[in-house]
Write a structure and sequence with these properties.
elongated; 2 helices; about 70 residues
Length: about 70
């Protein structure tokens, strides 16, 4: 039986997309549950998603150069 191998760069990109999706779901739930703070929650959520994207991009670049 042969083992399936996954490209490390594709794997990092998949994890990054999963992290962004989960982050968006968390903030969507928070905004839904507290409508008065929706604008503030989404502002913080957007900043958090930018941070997650930057950290994920660093990991993708690290894998690409290895």
């Amino acid at each position: 039986m042969t083992r399936m191998t996954i490209d490390p760069m594709a794997s990092e990109i998949a994890w990054a997309l999963l992290a962004l999706g989960i982050t968006a779901l968390v903030f969507a739930g928070a905004a839904w549950s507290y409508p008065q703070g929706r604008e503030t929650i989404w502002t913080v959520g957007a900043a958090t998603m930018v941070a997650v994207a930057l950290l994920s991009a660093r990991d993708v670049r690290r894998v690409r150069h290895d």
